[in-house]
Each structure stands twice: as structure tokens, then as C-alpha cells.
């Protein structure tokens, strides 16, 4: 969208994704951007594949990360699964790390079905969310080794997958509760 003129400048038809209200709710497609390469990553959760588009060439399809390339047993079944780390030049699909330059899995992954939602460059950590036995867990992992450093239970009951956002600069974690239309903000302290 060109916000000055308020007109769409490109439309991408995403092949194979069900359209209309299919009851799948949020997350039928998920997006991430690689600004340095001018690429758009589109995850189709139902098809378990990521399609890569080149914005510089009118959003031409340049690659597809298929079901066969990604170990989907390491990805959560719901929630926001894509995370792009511009500083380390990697894309995460759930727990699976993909080299953004080659678009090939690196062979590294986080332990468990974790969906990364934030990174703190100064402390060198990734923040993620995973389902535990009695609720949701916030995980903090070392970005260099992908080793889990700490897990903390997320307080309260959650009807749907919580929607987290990390504000590393101010030491805050915001958690949205979709069904309850509520947002909780936690002070998590100095992340460094």
C-alpha cells in the first residue's frame, strides 16, 4: 500500500491457501521480511511450507521451503511461527533455523516446539513461547548456541495461544490474550 496515495502497489496470490472464513482463525498465513535482501517470507501453516518472494522484482516467487526441507515435528502446531533475525541473518520456522542467504536449514534447532517472538541483541538471547504440561512457558535461549537458559511459566489461563511481544530496550514483555481481548504487560527487568 502506498500510504500517501492509499492505493495498493502489489497484490500476491498465494497458491493453495484456503480462502474465506475456513474456521482456521489467525495464523493461516504468516509473514516476515528480510529487509536487506528485499524479500518477503510467507508461511502457509496448513501446507507447512514457506514461500519466498522478491519485492525488487514485483514480488516474483524465488523459492519455496517445502514440507520435506523443514522438520515440522520441531514446530508448534499453532501460534506465530516465523521469526527473522536480521542481525544473525537467520529465519526461524518454529524451532528450526534456516540460513537466510541460502534458504537451507542450518541443521540447528531449539529444543522443543518453541516459537521465537523476540530477540535481545545486547544479551544475545532469543525469547520464545512453548506449551508446557500445565500452561504456556516463556523461554529464553542463547542465540549463539540455541541452548535454553531459562523458562518461566506464563501466569493465568489462556483460551487461545497467547500473543507475546518483547520490548528489550525497556525490559517489558507484553502478552495479548485473544479470546479475552486483554493485554498484560510484565516488567522483566534488565535483560543484560
> What's the average pLDDT?
86
Q: Calculate Rg over CA atoms.
A: 17 Å
Low-confidence stretches: none
The backbone outline, from C-alpha atoms, is: globular
What about the largest sheet? 4 strands, antiparallel
Q: Tell how many strands the DSSP assignment holds.
A: 15
End-to-end span in angstroms?
Answer: 38 Å
Helix content: under 10%
How much strand? over 45%
Provide the spatial order of strands within the biggest beta sheet: 1-2-3-4
Tally of helical runs: 0
Q: Return the structural class.
A: mainly beta
Please write the string of helix (H) and strand (E) elements.
EEEEEEEEEEEEEEE
Structure described in brief:
Helix content is 0%, strand content 45%. The chain has strands at 29-34, 39-44, 49-54, 60-65, 82-85, 90-93, 96-99, 104-109, 115-120, 125-132, 135-142, 148-153, 163-167, 172-177, 182-187.
Structure description:
- By secondary structure, the chain is an all-beta fold.
- The protein is 0% helix and 45% strand.
- A four-stranded antiparallel sheet has the order 1-2-3-4, with no helix packed on it.
- 26% of the residues are buried.
- The mean pLDDT is 86.
Amino acid at each position: 500500500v502506498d500510504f500517501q496515495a492509499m492505493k495498493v502497489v502489489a497484490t500476491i496470490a498465494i497458491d493453495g491457501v484456503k480462502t474465506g472464513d475456513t474456521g482456521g482463525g489467525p495464523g493461516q498465513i504468516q509473514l516476515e521480511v528480510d529487509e536487506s535482501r528485499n524479500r518477503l517470507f510467507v508461511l502457509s501453516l496448513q501446507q507447512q511450507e514457506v514461500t519466498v518472494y522478491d519485492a525488487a522484482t514485483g514480488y516474483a516467487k524465488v523459492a519455496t521451503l517445502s514440507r520435506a526441507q523443514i522438520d515440522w515435528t520441531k514446530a508448534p502446531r499453532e501460534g506465530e511461527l516465523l521469526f527473522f533475525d536480521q542481525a544473525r541473518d537467520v529465519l526461524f520456522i518454529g524451532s528450526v533455523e534456516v540460513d537466510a542467504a541460502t534458504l537451507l536449514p542450518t541443521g540447528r534447532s531449539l529444543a522443543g516446539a518453541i516459537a521465537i517472538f523476540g530477540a535481545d541483541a545486547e544479551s544475545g538471547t532469543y525469547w520464545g513461547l512453548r506449551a508446557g504440561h500445565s500452561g504456556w512457558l516463556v523461554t529464553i535461549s542463547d542465540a549463539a548456541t540455541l541452548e535454553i537458559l531459562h523458562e518461566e511459566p506464563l501466569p493465568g489461563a489462556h483460551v487461545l495461544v497467547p500473543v507475546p511481544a518483547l520490548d528489550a530496550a525497556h525490559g517489558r514483555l507484553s502478552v495479548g490474550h485473544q479470546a479475552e481481548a486483554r493485554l498484560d504487560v510484565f516488567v522483566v527487568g534488565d535483560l543484560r
